[in-house]
Amino acid sequence: MACAHAETSKTSGVTREQWRTPEPTDIIFPKWQRELFKTILEEENLRSDREGQPRTGYSLRHTYISLRLMEGANIYQIGKNCRTSVGMIEKYYAVNIKTSLDAAAINVVCSKKDWLEEEEV
């Protein structure tokens, strides 16, 4: 078991534990990481989106998926990378940017073999 002690960041003042090997029961996103993320957003004046909603770590996932779709990335690869289904991407991400998407680029039906070959490239 690795030791851990409290440490304070010079830029944000957020206290955090020094790196240690995680235990199976550890929380994936401990409170100090959420607080650090919040502090960084506040320092950069990015705490809220254009609709006034607070940004969260989930915002990064949403941005990543949306940007990849706009780049024309394979929707099946995005789903695998983000551990979500094509249906969920179409329902919750693609719908928000549908005017800027090339439908032909994201609605490509390919076999699993083609999909796996694309990943290796």
Describe the structure.
With 121 residues, the chain is mostly helical. The chain folds into two domains: 6-43, no CATH class; 57-120, no CATH class. 45% of the residues lie in helices and 5% in strands. Strand 1 (6-8) and strand 2 (15-17) form a beta hairpin. It starts with 5 loop residues before the first strand and ends with a helix. The relative contact order is 0.09.
Features of this protein?
121 residues, mainly alpha, 6 helices, flat
Summarize the model shown.
This protein is mainly alpha-helical. The protein contains six helices and two strands.
Give helix % range.
Answer: 40-55%
Question: In the residues, how many domains can be counted?
Answer: 2
* DSSP strand tally: 2
Apparent shape: flat
Tell me the quaternary state.
single chain
Structural class: mainly alpha
What is the radius of gyration computed over CA atoms, rounded to a whole number of angstroms? 19 Å
**Elements, N to C (H/E):** EEHHHHHH
**Model regions low in confidence, pLDDT < 50 over at least 5 residues:** 1-7
Largest sheet: 2 strands, antiparallel
Enumerate the strands of the largest sheet in spatial order, edge to edge or round the barrel.
Answer: 1-2
| CA-CA gap between termini | 39 Å
Strand content is under 5%
Average pLDDT, all residues: 75
Count of discrete alpha- or pi-helical segments spanning 4 or more residues: 6
What is the secondary structure topology, with strand pairs?
Elements: E1 6-8, E2 15-17, H1 31-43, H2 57-70, H3 75-81, H4 86-92, H5 103-106, H6 112-120
Antiparallel strand pairs: 1-2
